Amino acid sequence: MEIALRRAFLGVALTAIALLMPRDAIGAQPAARAFNVFLDCSGFFCDEEFFRTEIVSVNWVRERTAADVHVLATSQRTGGGGTFFTLAFIGQHKFEGVSDTLSYVAPQSSTNDETRRGLARTLQLGLVRYLARTSAAERLAVTFTAATNKDSSSTAPVRDPWNAWVFTLGSNGNGFREESYSSVYINGQVAVNRVTDAWKTSVSANENYSESRFSFGGTQSVFIQRSYFASLLQVKSLDDHWSAGLKGSFTSSTYLNQRFSARITPAVEYDLFPYADATRRQLRFQYGVGVSSFSYYDTTLFNKLRETLPVQLFSTAFSQRQTWGSVNAGVDATSYLSDLARRRITYSLGANVRIVKGLSVNFSGNYDAIHDQFYIPKETITRDDALLRQTQQSTRFSQFFFVGLNYSFGSVLNNVVNPRFGGDGGGMMFFMQ
């Protein structure tokens, strides 16, 4: 009966859609536009609806193989807290071999609207060279605003009283309450950064507090977790491929039974590709040797309340973003020189790949091989602490994996924006057994 009702509902819904479909919309031809463009971007800055409404000289398509120009957008943070965007224009089909790269810098103070307008203008500038090669060039108008005295003075070197230092303060919290349960979470952070071509300095600290209260059978239980974390990074640029630095960290965590954990590690790094290509591709190798010091809340399995150990770090990271998608992989290893059996190795892999027209797969995952839990308390933890994850338990590994498969077909045109009733077109989902 339930299955029959679901099938009947599905039939009625599809019939209603067919009847309500405007007859003049079926087979309607889009307005003539110069050529097809596929915008390949992700993140909060990628306001595709805004770009489609602002730039109407081209057809926006949702399939890269149907595009005459593939625009690949990448971004990275600037030293002042802003964002540096790189737009790579890659010609396809009739524009094969015609490529270009433009950039846009959004200051830290830019609003989302200012950022998207700056990106839209850069997109328009990049498309001009392609428009000029089509019959639409007759309708292309290029204007240039003459510089004023005020504009000329703005090109002079700007005095920076802060000498490139940027300070950030922040705090957030949330709470939930019902009759038998309540929780509260509070976080605070501070960061100090200075980035120039020659030096990179980053200092940050944050504190986390969480509290949960349960009432059951007339008894109230309270569980509290606290943690502190601070980090230091000082890097000197040596050339286009090499850099040297100093990494430091301080941690305090009730969950990890660490009253404090401090580490200082000098390190060197080599990138097979020039650092200037980092938004599109990188293959970095990093190695460091230093010392770690620990102090514990409770006596550990090895009867320690404190200890200091020499440590070595190694990591390698690969990432690449091309027109077919993106892939990233990495290995991070830590071992203690006094006992190489005390180690931790993290493997990570992620990709978003377009397999064939309309079909793409994305996945990510990581695996930790854990052999460095010498901070585990000697005393057996309680059942409540285990179930509520108030204290780290012994484990030899941890792993996480995500996979998704997407397939779309139909019209490749993606020009129209219709915000009525919210959303970007809506949809229906039916579950049948």
Summary, kept brief:
The protein has 433 residues and is mainly β.
Could you list some keywords that capture this structure?
disordered C terminus, Rossmann fold, about 15% helix, twelve-stranded antiparallel beta sheet, mainly beta, about 425 residues, Porin
Let me know the number of strands.
Answer: 17
Task: Choose one word for the global shape.
Answer: globular
Helix content: 10-25%
Q: Give the low-confidence spans.
A: 24-30, 426-433
Largest sheet: 12 strands, antiparallel
Model description:
The chain is mainly β. It folds into 2 domains: 31-139, Rossmann fold (3-Layer(aba) Sandwich), CATH 3.40.50; 165-407, Porin. It contains 5 helices and 17 strands. It has helices at residues 2-20, 48-54, 112-131, 149-154, 383-387; strands at residues 36-40, 59-60, 69-77, 83-91, 99-106, 165-177, 181-195, 199-216, 219-237, 242-253, 258-271, 281-296, 306-322, 325-336, 339-356, 359-371, 397-407. The N and C termini lie close together (12 Å). Mean pLDDT is 84; it is low at 24-30 and 426-433.
Helix and strand layout, with pairings?
Layout: H1 2-20, E1 36-40, H2 48-54, E2 59-60, E3 69-77, E4 83-91, E5 99-106, H3 112-131, H4 149-154, E6 165-177, E7 181-195, E8 199-216, E9 219-237, E10 242-253, E11 258-271, E12 281-296, E13 306-322, E14 325-336, E15 339-356, E16 359-371, H5 383-387, E17 397-407
Parallel strand pairs: 1-2, 1-3
Antiparallel strand pairs: 3-4, 4-5, 6-7, 7-8, 8-9, 9-10, 10-11, 11-12, 12-13, 13-14, 14-15, 15-16, 16-17
